[in-house]
């Protein structure tokens, strides 16, 4: 089965639509489109992103095509582009599944997490709460924290499977261990930096599509990780039953690895093949919307710089 996994859309409809169009043009047909949380937050298009994701999950019976057209019109420059984009969305209708992330939970009113957010993130959450429709708010409230596919031996979670509500940052292989991973392959996001970590019963190794700076490593693991780090864009999951993988799929709406292009991952769970993908999009338009919404300027700058 061909699965598309993406995460951290963060109310960036321009990036989300670009990724959807790319998926239909280059990956179609697919079995599922899986979203690993943080649909909202930071960006200026939370209702558009929620409407699109709900359409991908439930189809036009839940979200009128008129709303989808409105979202497309706001992000596409001419009628031809709008037509192609709408057709791409329709091609993925009911292919979607989603879980929630910390920004989704904060927006939905889980106040116990508020203290963990920095002032800029909190300001974006407060703004999102004010503009989000009731139906989209209820949608965010309904999202689970993990989703497991036992037959295919993988799961999606926003941060870590053993404690999904804590939203721990997995910045390097030392943040997890073999026993904290409950599936052969775990897909997450949260850090906005695409990477892939391999765990065995004996040692930790890492394959990363984006190299983690050496000073971010736990010194006890540094030698093993440094020697085994490769810049790769695709690889095959090893069938050894004692190997487990944690895959960070990066971010659609606010990458933080120095590359402003939106991220997603393609995983063929039959062939066990995984690929990291990047998609350019109109960062200027997304940044302009943030400024027009009077959200913190830093959020607009981060989109254009990919940091």
From TrEMBL:
GO terms for cellular component: cytoplasm. It comes from the Bacteria. CDD domains: MPP_superfamily (cd00838). InterPro entries: Ap4A_hydrolase, Calcineurin-like_PHP, Metallo-depent_PP-like, Pesterase_MJ0912. Residues 4-193 form the Calcineurin-like phosphoesterase domain. One of its GO terms (molecular function) is phosphatase activity. Pfam families: Metallophos. This is Calcineurin-like phosphoesterase domain-containing protein. It comes from Candidatus Brocadia sapporoensis.
């Amino acid at each position: 089965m061909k699965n598309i996994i993406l995460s951290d859309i963060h109310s960036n409809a321009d990036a989300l639509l670009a990724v959807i169009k790319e998926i239909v043009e280059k990956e179609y047909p697919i079995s599922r489109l899986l979203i690993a949380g943080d649909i909202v937050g930071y960006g200026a298009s939370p209702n558009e992103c929620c409407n699109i994701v709900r359409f991908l999950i439930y189809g036009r019976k839940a979200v009128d095509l008129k709303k989808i057209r409105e979202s497309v019109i706001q992000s596409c420059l001419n009628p031809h582009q709008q037509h192609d984009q709408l057709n791409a969305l329709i091609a993925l209708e009911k292919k979607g599944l989603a879980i929630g992330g910390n920004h989704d939970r904060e927006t939905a009113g889980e106040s116990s997490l508020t203290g963990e957010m920095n002032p800029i993130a909190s300001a974006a959450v407060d703004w999102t709460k004010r503009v989000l429709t009731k139906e989209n708010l209820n949608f965010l409230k309904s999202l689970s924290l993990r989703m497991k596919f036992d037959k295919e031996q993988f799961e999606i979670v926003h941060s870590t499977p053993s404690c999904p509500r804590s939203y721990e940052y997995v910045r390097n292989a030392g943040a997890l261990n073999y026993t904290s991973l409950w599936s052969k392959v775990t897909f997450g996001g949260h850090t906005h930096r695409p990477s892939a970590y391999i765990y065995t019963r004996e040692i930790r190794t890492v394959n990363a599509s984006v190299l983690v700076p050496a000073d971010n490593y736990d010194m006890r693991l540094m030698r093993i990780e440094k020697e085994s780090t490769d810049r790769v864009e695709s690889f095959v999951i090893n069938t050894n039953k004692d190997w487990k993988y944690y895959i960070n799929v990066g971010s659609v709406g606010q990458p933080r690895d120095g590359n402003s292009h939106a991220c997603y991952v393609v995983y063929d769970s039959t062939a066990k093949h995984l690929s990291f993908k990047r998609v350019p999009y109109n960062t200027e338009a997304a940044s302009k919307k943030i400024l027009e919404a009077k959200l913190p300027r830093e959020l607009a700058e981060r989109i254009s710089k990919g940091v």
